[in-house]
Specification:
Elements: H1 5-18, E1 28-33, E2 36-43, H2 46-59, E3 64-67, E4 70-71, H3 82-95, E5 104-109, E6 112-119, H4 122-133, E7 140-143, E8 146-147, H5 155-168, E9 177-182, E10 185-192, H6 195-206, E11 213-220
Parallel strand pairs: 2-3, 2-4, 6-7, 6-8, 10-11
Antiparallel strand pairs: 1-2, 5-6, 9-10
Length: 221
């Protein structure tokens, strides 16, 4: 007797979860009811919860997936306060080039993170989710970030803003830097003395209002 389609899907999900080292399959229960996949049980971190959802969604593309997994930290792990979680997330946001945290607010209540505010494109919202999911102590995320295209300035304004910023910097010789902007993407090239200067230029560009992406082709020499 051939197995039912739902049984095949369930087996595929379990196989993917078993082969994913980031997920502990021993405490995850998979069921399918009326075309809906349910993930129940508990995992050791929020990132594991997201990994499990991703595996189930990819294995059951034609099914809705409900992720009811609970995050239960290991007993030997020291607790992380809400203040520490919030401060770490804000710190990680500042370190990442993929997100401009200027208009993002972070609230944490018993390990549950709520992101509010707005970003200039969808990729920033996704980057914020990835940062939160990998932050120690997080058990859930409610991403309320709004994508606000009105934040995007025109290319000429971006180019002038960068020119002004480079001129004010003591590290950057603006005469050795070529900057081009196309639909919010900044292309920078030229030659600088060392890598910290190269990174400083990229950071200036990445955190300029309206910039969606930076292509850094500056050489060191």
């Amino acid at each position: 007797m051939k197995p039912l389609p739902e049984e095949i899907i369930k087996k595929n999900i379990i196989n993917r979860l078993t082969n994913n080292d980031a997920v502990n399959i021993n405490h995850i229960f998979v069921s399918i009811t009326d075309g809906v996949v349910h993930l129940q049980g508990h995992v050791p971190s929020y990132s594991a919860k997201i990994e499990a959802l991703r595996d189930a969604t990819e294995a059951a593309r034609d099914f809705n997936v409900v992720n009811d997994l609970q995050v239960n930290f290991q007993p030997h792990q020291p607790p992380v306060s809400d203040t520490e979680i919030r401060d770490n997330i804000k710190k990680y946001f500042k370190w990442q080039k993929s997100i401009n945290p200027m208009h993002v607010e972070v609230e944490v209540d018993k390990g549950k993170v709520v992101l509010t505010g707005h970003v200039s494109n969808e990729s920033e919202s996704i980057a914020a989710e990835k940062i939160v999911s990998s932050t120690k102590g997080v058990i859930d995320l409610d991403n309320r970030l709004q994508v606000n295209p009105k934040m995007i300035s025109n290319d000429q304004h971006i180019q002038q803003t960068l020119k002004d910023a480079f001129e004010k910097s003591a590290l950057i010789d603006e005469n050795k830097i070529i900057t081009e902007v196309e639909k919010g993407t900044v292309y920078i090239s030229g030659c600088v003395a060392n890598d910290p200067i190269r990174k400083e230029i990229e950071d200036q560009a990445m955190h300029t209002k309206g910039v969606n992406k930076v292509v850094n082709e500056i050489t060191v020499g």
